Amino acid sequence: MLLDLDGEVLVIDPAGEHWVRFRVKRVPPTPEKPQGFYYALTLHGPGGTRLVGFDNAHPVRSVAGPAGRRTLAHDHRHRHRTIRPYEYRDAAQLLADFWTEVEAVLEERGVTL
Questions:
Q1: How far apart are CA 57 and CA 80, in angstroms?
Q2: Among 14-23, 30-39, 100-109, where is mean pLDDT lowest?
Q3: Which helix (H) or strand (E) holds 96?
Q4: What residue ranges in the chain does DSSP mark as E strands?
Q5: For 19-37, what is the mean pLDDT?
Q6: 36: phi > 0 → left, psi -120 to 50 → alpha, else beta; which?
Q7: What is the domain partition of the chain in residue ranges?
Q8: Is the pLDDT of residue 68 over 60?
Q9: Helix, strand or coil for residue 99?
Q10: How is residue 47 annotated by DSSP?
Q11: Torsional class of 72: left (φ above 0), alpha (ψ -120 to 50), beta (otherwise)
Q12: According to the model, what pLDDT value does residue 58 have?
């Protein structure tokens, strides 16, 4: 179902200032992308600014700090300028988590759907 969304762009507010984009491509399974696909689900605001993103395009540190063990996770989420690891379970959960985050950010911005 996730692969069917590839290339979709949806305007999600009446003013047309916020939109989501889905990019999903099948790739050979690797340790970094064991699901067998690349994904990037993003929410954009006025001017195209990315507000939310869930993707597996690049590694991020999963544990920070001088005492913490630093490992790299490819599944992660962006919220404004913050990047955090994301625990990918399956496509349905990814979509649910993405839309939950989109709704929270829009609510913070006072955007009604």
A1: 17
A2: 30-39
A3: helix 91-108
A4: 9-11, 19-26, 37-44, 50-55, 60-61, 72-73, 76-79, 82-85
A5: 94
A6: left
A7: 3-91
A8: no
A9: helix
A10: G
A11: beta
A12: 83
Q: What is the DSSP string of 5-17?
A: GTT-EEE-STTS-
* pLDDT on residue 32: 87
Among candidate residues 1, 48, 21, 47, the one with its CA nearest the CA of residue 102: 21
Q: Name the pTM for this structure.
A: 0.88
- How are beta strands 60-61 and 72-73 bridged, if at all? antiparallel
Which of 37, 43, 39, 79 minimizes the C-alpha distance to 55?
Answer: 39
Q: Which structure tokens are listed for 91?
A: 């496509």
Q: Which residue has the higher pLDDT, 113 or 109?
A: 109
Distance CA 79, CA 84 (A): 8
